[in-house]
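Checklist before submission:
- one chain only
- standard amino acids only
- sequence pasted in full

Submission:
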Amino acid sequence: MTNRDPRVLHVTPVFRPGVGGVETYVETMAQAQAEAGWKVTVLTCQPGASAPASWDALARPPLVVRVHRWALGGAMRRLSAHNGFDVLHLHAWSRPTVLQAALAGRAPMLFTPHGAFVGPSARTSRAVRVVQAGFDRVVAKRLLARMSLVHALTEYQAALLTRSWGVPPSRLVVQGPPLADEARSPRPGTPGGRGRYLAMARLSREKRVPDVLGALAARHELAPCDVVGPEENDIAEVRRMAGRLDPDRVAFLGVVTGPERLDLLRGATALLLPSEFEGLSITALEALAQGTPVVASATASRGLPTAAILVFPTGDVSALADRMHEVADPAVRDRLSSAASEAAASFPSPASHAAFLVAAYRRMGQSGPTGGQ
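Returned file contents:
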């Protein structure tokens, strides 16, 4: 790659701007890169039929291309041939997406897995776990070997990629996700002023939102909880458990974006993060920047500032309820909130993370492409 501005194709299995996680990362970086004069395209899968039209309206990169999930490989080849991309930046550990990228890509590839590599979800069926574990054991390591560089979000994730997936340290770069400029400044209003807990995540099995509802059922003195996020494969279980609670104990707010999302984070007693795994939760970083403590499972807490969070064993509903009770104590919350605000000053900005990516892209360009032929 020359010294001109890079031409980058971001490939992600999901792109629902404003929702959080991978979407927030890709949107933030694609916007920052486009504003810096880069040629940026986002290639992603078609959303489900229930997806709001606002997702496309919120997308701020210059071009978003949506195709069927199994048409990503062909789209990568066509877009690369037409635009001459210097870098293919692949996001998230989606087995179909990684497989198609490894077979189709000719430009140097940077892979950011986002979520931690922990194998199949414990809450999927046994048959699915067997198939996914077999794919990971036989195919995944070979696919990772085709990546020019792998971008880990935390040192823990980097060590896991080396230890369990055979990625040599020489092909790893490490930096946490950037916090968008609009999320860095605390919103107006009283911290924790809503007096409600907040679970903000896709309603998918790995996010373990039913654990939150179980905690509310176990401890009746706990404040109510707002649940924010799109409906996915755990919605039936979430609704079933919510039906056991008094109607005023939980509110489902759907997808909330923009300033309203930050207002919810600012006003929450705590953000609840019971996930089975996280790479490094951007939603948690946003909460901390708003001075809001995070109650996180052990597997979701890695990389978060320890002084600003309370941790419980993943899947232990009773321990989660105890931590929710603990964070509601004003003295405890004030201590965690102060630590959160202090830690947020060190989170990467879009500009600093863009510079980090430029260095990674140029390093890949010097080493040449590693994709399939």
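Reviewer check: Confidence is low (pLDDT under 50) at residues 49-59, 368-373.
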